[in-house]
Amino acid sequence: MPRRIAHQTTKPDTTGTSQDVSIPGGHETGDLIVVHAVNDNNPSTTIGITAGYSALIPQSSAQTIRTATFYKIAASSSEPDITITGANAQWVFHVTI
Question: CA 13 to CA 75: how far, in whole Å?
Answer without folding.
Answer: 31
